[in-house]
Amino acid sequence: MTGRPKALAARGPSPAQLTPNSAHPQLAINGGAPVRTEPWPTYDKGAVFVTRSDEEAALRAVRSHLYFRYDCRPHLETECGQLEAELCEFFGCRHALAVSSGTAALALSIMAARIPAGSLVACPGFTFAATPSAIILAGCKPLLVEVDENLHLDLADLRRRWTPQIRAIVVVHMRGFAADMAQLAGFAAEHGVPLIEDAVPALGAELHGRKLGTFGLAGAFSTQSDKSLNCGEGGFLVTDDSAVFARAVVLSGAYEGRYLRHFPEGPPPLETDLDLPLYNFRMDEIRAALLRGELTRLKVRLGCFRRNYEYVAARLADLPGIAIRQPVASGAYLGEAFIFRATAADPNWFARALRAEGIDARNLGATDDTNIRVYWNWRFMFPGMEGKEVMDLLPSTTRYLGQAVDIPLSSTLSPADCDHLIAAVRKVAGSG
To answer: Which pLDDT does position 25 carry in this prediction?
Structure first.
């Protein structure tokens, strides 16, 4: 992508000009003409928010021949060191650590919080499989909790399932929507356990003017290709707790005293880096340089997400037969996904009909789909259990995911793309 973002351009045809009953009377799934024929823009098709200046930033690091973050330079002269400082400024936090993935960031947060091996760690049943995987990687056991009709972690169910064996809570801002952090933080404090944020799907989103990822003991983020900052693979964690940060730095791979580079003001609250195991979770200089370039325009990209989401949601809010996912507070979402529950038609058929109209859509809980964002497909967690037996473990989550239709909203969507989405949803919803 170069030049002005498409999402900032003037709007194209209004939804009224794309009325399905007149322009597309027959559904494409039944042989009619589709609303659009161009591929729906997504990251895996190259629809990414990257400019020539970002490319030059990465080339700067390549040409330096210094790819290892702990080389001869002072910490704040490295790309990783500068990225971490810039992330601290963006999030308003004391510490940031660039690592190899969002999964690594989450696992490091749990390990650095000193959660005892074998402990239960609560997390929602609607999340990416990396969340329970990171909990397992940290030596703990995931305890799944129901989500409500808006796919937020259900605090009432967490209360029902509570046991002293739960030693931490991982809350997930899934598909960019903030969880209710005030209630969850209060509950965690009540039980004396740390609250850790899996903010991987919500980089840059806010709740009541505060960045997601800064409410808990630590927040984990990803910079994989479909995230707000994209370097293909990568991630980072943020925290205000210096002891947690110091342990995470050592665990991530800062050996032989290199962790001291992260504390120029004085030694951290850590006796030695030999007390902790060493994992290779470091970020390299090339990825850090690319992210630094993108970070300068992150606010613009976040604005594109928000603008497109609000435009689409406002024009479908009155549509019978769908229930649009609601945030816990006004504006408490990223806007990179549009999710609704199909309440008047089969959700799997609804998603297939949208795909036939040229809109990428997925029924999250489709039983013929191996979507790893739904818990019953995490076979590694349920040895010896099959199908309905697993789905019955979280009946509410199973029901709501079964109704949910998920449409990705790239920040590069044009006004015409957004109008096509609106027309397609109206066309499919009105077919019955």
So the answer is: 62
Same domain, 116 and 145: yes
Residue 37 CB contacts under 8 Å (≥ 6 apart), including other chains: 358
Bridge-partner residues for 329, per DSSP? none
Q: What is the pLDDT of residue 8?
A: 37
Q: With respect to residue 392, please indicate whether it lies within any of the assigned structural domains.
A: yes
Residues 190 and 305 in one domain: no
Give the model confidence (pLDDT) of 147-167 as tens digits: 999 999 999 999 999 999 999
Most distant CA pair in the chain: distance in Å? 73
Residue-number span of the structural domain to which 403 is assigned? 6-49+298-429
Judge contact between 193 and 348, C-beta under 8 A: no
**What is the rounded distance in angstroms from the CA atom of residue 332 to the CA atom of residue 211?**
10
Average pLDDT, stretch 320-326? 97
Sign of CA dihedral 257, 261, 267, 270: negative
**309 falls in which pLDDT band (50, 70, 90)?**
very high
Residues 43 and 161 in one domain: no
The answer to whether residues 220 and 285 belong to one domain is yes
Helix/strand/coil percent split, the chain, to 5? 40, 15, 45
Which residues have C-beta within 8 Å of that of residue 218, sequence separation ≥ 6? 109, 112, 113, 196, 197, 237, 238, 239, 241, 244, 248
The answer to whether residue 1 sits within a structural domain is no
Any domain includes 229 = yes
Looking at the structure, do residues 150 and 247 belong to the same domain, yes or no?
yes
| Mean pLDDT of the 265-285 span | 89
Paired tokens of 242 = 């210096």
Structurally, the chain folds into a number of domains equal to 2
- Identify how many contiguous H helices and E strands the chain contains and give both numbers: 14, 13
pTM of the full structure: 0.92
Residues 185 and 86 placed together within one structural domain of the fold? yes
Average of per-residue pLDDT across 46-53: 91
**267 pLDDT more than 60:** yes
